[in-house]
Amino acid sequence: MKHLIKPNSDSTVRVEVTPASAGWDYLSFKVVALQAGERYQQATGGDEVALVPLIGTAVLSANDQQFNVSRKGYFAEAPHILYAPPRTDVGVTAVTDFEFAIGGAPAEGKYPVRLFRPDEMKQEVRGGGVATRQVNHVLAAPLPAERLILFEVYVPGGMVSGWPPHCHDGYANSPYLEEVYYYRVTPEAGYCIHRNYRRDNEFDELFTVRDGDLVLVTQGFHPVTVPPGSNVYFLNYLAGELLNEARATPPYDDPDWGWMKDDYGGNKMGLPIF
């Protein structure tokens, strides 16, 4: 499967990946766009599921529970997130045009249905220098889930995210986590560069990413570079071998660049050079 998936604007399901299509074991993900009055239903089966509103107003249901949710936009405010355990019927009724992400991973059913509020979610400005970005821990430990981990990340123009580069594919005893990056980019002509690579140079892929694209991280380190004039939001869903509180286990930094956590301005050439 291609690791860069372009959106289908003619379909209700804009992008989608499953374990079968990705060739991995745990994570499923899709983005759905409904018009006002339309309804979407999904049985979670053996998966826990998290639903992230992107823009619009809707009524969400999980078995016999209902929740009213609204979001002005992913660049405007943090979301409420619906968590549903296995064997739950999830429904979405769009009050206005409503776009949302929904993804899942196998689980036992340890946690109940819950609507997470923005004030429960840790927000941090991470990094430094040209590697400054905002990371919102929208469903990450200590917020409870069995396998799912979710972040929303904001990267201004001229900045780099995921720096120093890190991996979570089992390399160097890193945790094994599958991951997707769902991108929204402004302005319309905006873009960013996403790289997936391994240190042995046996795997290295580079993508020019535009608004609505989905990138799969199947292995390797994965930094993101945003050119001046573009602004980027991305939504990360991760799932793998980490369970419950162990979801807080950090990834492994590329040792060629890990030193930059102590000096984000280090080794910078000054101008004029002569």
Automatic annotation (TrEMBL):
Top-level EC class: isomerase
Pfam families: KduI (PF04962)
Biological process (GO), any one: inositol catabolic process
GO molecular function: glucuronate isomerase activity
EC number: 5.3.1.-
UniProt keywords, alphabetically: Isomerase
InterPro entries according to UniProt: Deoxy-glucuronate_isom_IolB (IPR024203), KduI/IolB_isomerase (IPR021120), RmlC-like_jellyroll (IPR014710), RmlC_Cupin_sf (IPR011051)
This protein's name: 5-deoxy-glucuronate isomerase
Taxonomic path: unclassified sequences, metagenomes, ecological metagenomes
